[in-house]
Fold each of these.
Amino acid sequence: MSLDRFLQRKTAVLSKLDKSSIGKWDTKIKPLCDKLNSLNDFYTTSSCSGRIVLMIEQEKKENDLFLKVWHYKISLAVLKKALKEFVNIKKIIKFKFESPIIHVACKDLKKTSEILEKAKHIGFKRSNLITFGKNIFLELNSTEKLEFPIIKNGRILVDDIFLELIVEISNKKLEKGWDKIRKLEKEIE
């Protein structure tokens, strides 16, 4: 791909308004995105530093499925308060922890493979290269994940002991993901 065409696309993508669910940069991953975007060979198209989610169980992805999203550590009290808000929904609601993910457009395969190897070594184990014709993209994805039903027909399915455990585990997974993000930022030149 010609450098001019790549830089034109990079400029166009980076000048667009933020369409994320939080409507602004995810502060824990912004330094990594800024570093990648400062390099001539890369630009980011989407990213998330990890999140804790309460959402309606649904086969197809639709709007308004996400009931609550946290991009930061939470407490047991915060989770219990949120669950109480949604017990009137007569559907299955699931608790979900999603690990960090970042999508990066790349100019050429050589530098792309270097970042991919660094990311995998740091712990972004579910990372891969995606190509669409002349376009090259990296999906850097970590492996931490939790997902299970937590409310069914207005009834919370687990006790406080379990809720406390999943809050603790999710917060640790967030910290682990943030550590991987910082390490990758340091590795990229």
Amino acid sequence: MQLAKLSQQKAAVQKPEQIISALPGVLPLPIPLPLWQKAPVQDAAQADQRTAGAVGSLPIPAPSAKVTIPAEELKPMYDFAVDCKGCQLRLATAQADLKDEQTKTKALGRERDDALRAVQGDRL
């Protein structure tokens, strides 16, 4: 039931704005992701000036640098986070099932041991 709800949630969230608002519910981040808008480049000369200093070496971002996530990457990231939640639910269910099976196995082992003792007691 919870897995079906997660699948519906994943299908319902499609647009970047929806993803940004829904992402904290499935992927706990210390600071929410802002929705960045690309500023249009004024002209090609400005774009060339910005990239000229980075040719041959990559600039090292400052510790407080902002990270921009392309809109195309938001949906796969959100889907992965929802799938992760689903895996966590399945893992919790499997662990509970394992505990139940271990308890049943112990009980059956005790019953078997008691039956063996009873049979051996009849022989004496």
Amino acid sequence: MRNQPELKVFVYGTLKSGYQNHVRYCQGVIRVERAIVWGRLYDLGVGYPALQLPETVILGHGTTNPVVDVRIQAAQVVVHHAYKPLERPFGDWGEVHGEVLTFGFPPRQLEGMDRLEGFKPGQRSLYERVLTVAQWNGATGPVWAYVMPEVQGSKRILEGRW
């Protein structure tokens, strides 16, 4: 029997271990590992942060089908089996610190996280779920992350930790 692909999600706010939404939405997590992505982190002043990523590090966009999304992620692993260490993108981007959560297949947790983040593929959404590249425990690979397309009137967190 072949191993099923795993879902990897980069979290940087209330879905991190030790925060209230981790217990509710991340049941069944297999591994939690500290990780970084290149981006900008903002304090929205409402009890949760927002992440922005440079377009150059977005590998794909989430769909309404979690099984398809795991396969999209797995295909990126195959295509880019030898990811290089993260390189700083051009512009005003910094390291954003968070965690990579690894879930088994099928990824039942993804639908709950999408609801929490207000992600509605093909519609106006509070957050978008995109595939990007993270680095954790010496590994570099594709992860899903929730990004806010427009952040206005919020304070940037320069140290990249919420």
Amino acid sequence: MNTAQIIKHPNTEILLMAEINKLKSQLKEVEQRLIAYQHKNQVMIYDSNLHKMMAVDDIIMIQASSNYSTIYLSNGHHILTSKTLKHWEVTCCSCDLVRIHKSFIIHKNKWLSIDVASSSVFLSLGLRAKYSRMSKATLFQMLT
């Protein structure tokens, strides 16, 4: 049976429509996964009586201060939150955010240099974060 015979077959239109519907449902599923992925790279932050969706890529650093955290953003603003660093570590759930100290989480793509003498990481916008001995290997692995 050649191609011309298959196209002229009366059930071909039904088979093609079934295949098109199957592909449409697969496309819809992929679109839903894409939307979920985009929301996964965002985090809800409460600031000034408003809940704001912020992209994880906008975060330069999160600094702990007892049971509070200060989130430093790439636009120069910072937000004081009543959440712990552990909360943000779990909530952000991004491989781009790395905990380098008990008091600091940094965005791995926002650091500029490392000062080994003072155990500090210098970030964009003049921010500085200390790193612990335990995270030193992780930081130097990020360099390569």
